[in-house]
Amino acid sequence: SDIEYAFTMHAGLSLFKPIKPFSTLHAYIKPKDRSFYEKVLMLTPSEEDNAQLALITWPQNALFEEKQELHGLNVVSNKRLLSDIAENDEELHKDALEILK
To answer: What integer is the mean pLDDT of 2-13?
Structure first.
């Protein structure tokens, strides 16, 4: 569909090179599309520890304009991917620096 999204964190990095297994997909979406994703994917709220999908609403178009396509899926820019990973997972950040060099 024409609805914008871009994977980040483990989901984004795994499209560059296989990484350790992970259980949560992180994706940026536009705020106006949130209800669409919730309906189509039949999402229900969950505690962070049990979540399998984390939708991050992001209103600025620049993030989506800078996305890249890998294996038919949209991923945030390398700069954004490294930034997101650095803020959330120090060990994964070390892997990301090696993979994205």
So the answer is: 95
